[in-house]
Amino acid sequence: MGDRAMTGRALTNGAMTIGIVIVAAGRGERAGAPGDGPKQYRLIGGKPVIRHTLETFLRWPKRGPVVVVIHPQDEALYASAVRDMDGASDVITTFGGETRQKSVHQGLAAMASTEATHVMIHDAARPFADHALLDRIVLGFDQGHDGLLPAMPVTDTLKRGGSDGFVHETVPRAGLFAAQTPQSFLLSAIRLAHDKAAALRREDFTDDASIAEWAGIQVHLVEGSVDNIKLTVQRDIAMADEKLSRSADPLLPDVRTGNGYDVHQLVDGDGVTLCGVFIPHDQKLSGHSDADVALHALTDALLATCGAGDIGDHFPPSDMQWRGAPSRIFLAHAAEIVREKGGTIMNADISLIAEAPKISPHRETMRATLADILGISLDRCSVKATTNETIGFVGRREGIAAIATATVVYRGETR
């Protein structure tokens, strides 16, 4: 494969051009079972780890040329990982060596042929670096630092143990930091340091900052990111996949809608009760309690939003204690059940179907009654009425029907 010329235009930050070297030549043997493949090509959130990492840098407005260092055996894996990815054609690829140090050295050599003046060296297995971290590094360069190390203070208590299996001492953690990447440098300085280490066959450095320190480059600490973890073992891969899968499938708002329908017969009488309001009339409604079809329908609608049955389950018509009872008792009970299950009533809508009496003179009083029973604002309560155009039992004034809809938002997951 070898080096491939960059076809895209490098973005610069003033006179400074920041190149990116992503090290992806490792085998990642601790991150899975044999046959799982290198960890940088394992899927998290439906995409290879290296693709997540690359996307972060390719979408960063201040980035310059990008070099990815891969293993000679991973050409097909890499090509598959970046297929159809925006900006992938701009990336320079080169082969790495048998150690991370040698791979970085190869990446810096490839970067030397670009216009980059500074370089960020990042592990492909750290897919959660963010632009805020990269911007903090740029600020460090702007302040004149030639070496920058993102790091987090050590918060765990540290113990020094011996081969005998016992704790020998507690190590003070003041001034101790956990190193992260991208470790960032003046390109010419870090390349010279790597060249010197290679010439002397010094291969015992654990990261690029340690090479810089050895070569006399002052390395300035930059605040890292708690999310910028390195995926090392199988558990890390699983946790990263879970994290990204959750963010790709966020919790939906748990909005539920319930419907209710009721009808009662009209008989001779002196008035009807609808939506809790008595309206004088030459007929009355016959049925359960005060036969308020509107509140009965709305009670069923509310109960439906949490699978709590219907009005007959809670207030059986055969139970004589409910004979003539005001139906607002039923509606208030349903509203309480909804609240106990974590629901917030957002809207109540009732459509009355009747030839008579006229509903419009009483509509606002009805709405106010609903708002009072449910404990919601008036603008969340709607009452409408229509006739049946003299058709059917409603048209013959033999009964009144009601259709109700309730909207409730519940707390918690939708699954």
- Our count of helices gives 12
**What does the average pLDDT come to?**
91
The fold-level CATH name of the largest domain is: Spore Coat Polysaccharide Biosynthesis Protein SpsA, Chain A
Helix content: 25-40%
CATH class designation of the largest domain: Alpha Beta
- Contiguous low-pLDDT stretches (5 residues minimum) are 1-13
Estimated share of beta-strand residues: 25-35%
Report the CATH superfamily of the largest domain.
Spore Coat Polysaccharide Biosynthesis Protein SpsA, Chain A
Q: SS-based structural class?
A: alpha/beta
Radius of gyration: 35 Å
Q: Give the CA-CA distance, first to last residue.
A: 47 Å
Q: What is the oligomer described by this structure?
A: single chain
From the spread of the alpha carbons, the general shape counts as elongated
CATH architecture of the largest domain: Alpha-Beta Complex
Counting DSSP E segments of at least 2 residues, the number of strands comes to 19
Tally of distinct domains: 2
Explained architecture:
The protein is of the alpha/beta class and 415 residues long. It has two domains: 18-248, Spore Coat Polysaccharide Biosynthesis Protein SpsA, Chain A, CATH 3.90.550.10; 254-410, 60s Ribosomal Protein L30, Chain: A. The protein contains twelve helices and 19 strands. The chain has helices at 49-58, 75-81, 100-111, 131-142, 187-199, 208-214, 234-248, 293-304, 311-314, 328-340, 363-374, 392-395; strands at 18-24, 43-44, 47-48, 63-70, 92-95, 118-123, 147-153, 158-161, 167-171, 177-179, 183-186, 220-223, 254-268, 271-274, 277-280, 283-286, 343-353, 381-386, 399-410. The strands form five sheets. Strands 1, 4, 5, 6, 7, 10, 11 and 12 form an eight-stranded mixed beta sheet that branches. It has a five-stranded mixed beta sheet with strand order 16-13-19-17-18. A hairpin with a 2-residue loop joins β14 (271-274) and β15 (277-280). The longest helix is centred in the middle third of the chain and has 15 residues, at 234-248. It is elongated, with a radius of gyration of 35 Å. The two termini are 47 Å apart. The model is unreliable at 1-13 (pLDDT under 50).
